[in-house]
Specification:
Length: 134
C-alpha cells in the first residue's frame, strides 16, 4: 500500500544551525526557509536524490511541534511520510486493521497542498506516520 518515502521530518530548535549542518557539514542542497503559518511551522527542505528531509521549526504560539521540542530539546525525528495512491482507501484499510488515524480521520491538505493523514505512533513502533496522497 505505501509507496515512496516522501520525506522525513526533523524538528529542530535552531533552524539556522540546522541549515548550516545540512548545507555546510553534510554538503546537501537546502531551500530557503518557507513559512507555513497554517501548519505552525517554518520549513527548510533538504533535497536529496531520492527523497527529502524537512527541517521543522515552530512558527506561532500553537505550533504542533512545540510540545515535541519541549520533550526533545535537541530536536529529533518528528515523523516519516509515505506516499499512497488513494488516501481514503488507505485510511479504510488501516482502520480495518485496527490502526488509529489521528484527528477526525478525514484527510487534511498538508504542507505540500496534497491530502494527508497522520497515524498514531503507538501503532507504528513509536513513529508518527504521515500518509500523503501522491
Ligand atoms: Co510531513
Amino acid at each position: 500500500m505505501i509507496g515512496k518515502l516522501n520525506h522525513v521530518a526533523i524538528a529542530v530548535p535552531d533552524l539556522d544551525a540546522a541549515v548550516r549542518t545540512y548545507r555546510d557539514v553534510l554538503g546537501a542542497q537546502v531551500s530557503a526557509p518557507v513559512a507555513q503559518p497554517a501548519h505552525g511551522v517554518t520549513v527548510v527542505f533538504v533535497l536529496l536524490e531520492n527523497t527529502k528531509v524537512e527541517l521543522l521549526h515552530p512558527l506561532g504560539e500553537k505550533s504542533p511541534i512545540q510540545g515535541f521540542l519541549d520533550k526533545n530539546p535537541s530536536g529529533g525525528i518528528h515523523h516519516v511520510c509515505y506516499e499512497v495512491a488513494d488516501i481514503l482507501a488507505a485510511r479504510d484499510k488501516l482502520k480495518a486493521s485496527g490502526a488509529r488515524v489521528l484527528g477526525d480521520g478525514e484527510p487534511k491538505i498538508g504542507a505540500h497542498d496534497k491530502p494527508v493523514l497522520f497515524l498514531h505512533p503507538k501503532d507504528f513502533n513509536g513513529t508518527l506516520v504521515e500518509l500523503e496522497q501522491a
